[in-house]
TrEMBL record:
Cellular component annotations (GO), alphabetically ordered: membrane
Domain STAS, first and last residues per copy: 460-569
Places the protein is found: Membrane
Organism per entry: Roseospira navarrensis
InterPro entries: SLC26A/SulP_dom, SLC26A/SulP_fam, STAS_dom, STAS_dom_sf
Name this protein carries in UniProt: STAS domain-containing protein
Amino acid sequence: MSTPSRRSSAAASDPDRSLSVLFTPKLVTVLREGYGLRELRADAVAGLTVAVVALPLSMAIAIASGVSPDRGLYAAIVGGFIVSLIGGSRFQIGGPAGAFIVLVAATVAEHGVDGMLLATMMAGGILMVMGLLRLGSYIQFIPYPVTVGFTAGIAVIIFASQIKDLLGLSLHAPEPGPLFAKIPVLWHSLPTVTPAAVAVAVGTIAVIVGVKRLRPGWPNLLIAVVLAAVATAVADLPVATIGSHFGGIPQGLPLPGLPEVGWDKAAAVLPNAVAFALLGAIESLLSAVVADGMTGRRHRSNCELMAQGTANIGAALFGGLCVTGAIARTATNIRAGAHGPVAGMIHALALLVFVLVAAPLAAFIPLAALAGVLTIIAWNMVEKEAAWTLLRASRGDAAVLLVTFLLTIFRDLTEAIVVGFALGALLFIHRMSRAVSVEAHVPLVGEDRPDGHPAERTPYRPREGTDPSIMVYRISGAFFFGAVATVSSVLDRIAAAHRVLVLDFSAVPFIDSSAANTIHGLARKAQRNGVAVYLAGASPGVRRDLLTHGVRQPLVHWSPSVEEALARLHAEGDRTTEG
């Protein structure tokens, strides 16, 4: 019978098997388990429930991103279907997300709609490459304060982008993207407030909050938008609608086509594509992790990245926005009783039916109502309890959170994530370096044992007395570049009276090249001073890394433990004395 380690080694040596497991869509897994009418019924109910939520949200996100509402629906239909068809998460719902509003709006303003579509396609390619390189598991290394910070920053920007429609303002100049430039323009336009638009926005928000509180299972977003549209049409309110502003929504999907492609254009939008891919990977895998936490399942991160990449390419071919995993819609899907990915596919098909049959009705939806929807979304995006906890937890976490938050608002989302990640990593390295210790033992004693143990605090000496010429240092903790200075400051002070230095590595889980180079330099210095160096208790991995960097005999001597090293030294001393 093979052991688990042998089985894992066999799996690792079989790349085809490994790839087939890593990139098998969850739909295939669900169908293999057995799929019948009961499961289809559960997925149909969940899919229709999510479609009701996604319908107004997709249009609102598109409008806030600076494009027509139909592009949000195309992303939800095409991208959402692909994510569920070939994705690595059983319950993931794909579509346009509020987190992308800032990036998409900036890309549209700078490069036009064609530039946005090209950046979306390029982001899809980047996501697929990330999946093929199996980088999905590395997304989990984004520090929690960074995700809380940039999510809160995006929420502030989304709300600021909706002030115009919330108040029904007639701007005297084009609305700038940056917050600092936007505020003066909005301020000077305050005299043009439309009371009817304010009433529609406030009423929409009130209905959303009220329905959620009184009837949590009802589709509060759709109810609020429908009531706002009916009130606007019946009372003939003087507010902007999808029909008056965009001319309505086309009744059907467009034919797929490529945006304007060229080397210069591709180079210009490459930074935007990288930002789309980075945020898409973070959002989709965070959503998958949330789904895992709610259901006890496990997603396949690299398969999910491949699906997200394919979905973005597919959505862009039909003129849609960026696609990612939507946390709120995924959670709604789970709560509605979804069994598997078929629910997400039904959600996309339901939206397609709406576009084919009822698209003209969308023309009556007031923009103020969609602004109210996004105001609620922005409020919900802010993880208020988590932010307050992080601000109180430590100065380091508070600094990472605030820096990421402020950079997201006043600079750039990609820059905020990179700087926040770098700052979080530096703080972690600092904490880890302080956890490393170097202890000198003279006379040497063993590890603490349980009370009453016969060998409690057994001396590290096979005979009476302790040889003062033998010095033992024990290194505890991860020995890496952040701890090199701490360890070196102790080990460099090798007394001339010591003829032997024993380094106990039994409490070192791993080392890096900087640490190995430090030990190599120490051993060479000791050799010049006539001091013998023994390395004891090193694990196979630590020993391999040290050998790779030239820490080998006769420069040093290896021993399984400190006790055996000392026994060997005393035996050699006895032979010398007898000789």
